[in-house]
Amino acid sequence: MRFRWLLATAGLAAAIGTTVVSPSASAASGCRQHDDGIRYWCQNVSGAPVYGSIGNSRLYPNPDQVVGTMHSNPSWFYCKLDGQAWVGGPHPTRWLRTVADNGQYGWMKDTAIYSETDPVRDCYS
């Protein structure tokens, strides 16, 4: 059903000479700092997986190990880490440190966050 709606919308847009624009992370407002000065509140995909870390160090995300999910929205994040496993989107190698709903520490892909994540502090700054 949704596919038909998308086709109809795209067809109507083409017929009247306009462009259909989908929402993206770059269009969303930025994450905002929590009152504690440590965490950041960001809008995210409800039910997104939270991934574990490689080894025992908790320093690097493990894209092959889901440790929980994040059903809350907005959710809070400690920091961001670039240069990790590919996730795509406007920040193709960015992951954010958080705690899943089950209490497990982990990482969420930047593509699962609607808010612009640039305001979030770097994990190693």
From TrEMBL:
Keywords noted in UniProt: Signal
Signal sequence, renumbered to the chain: 1-27
Name of the molecule in the record: SH3 domain-containing protein
Organism this protein belongs to: Streptomyces heilongjiangensis
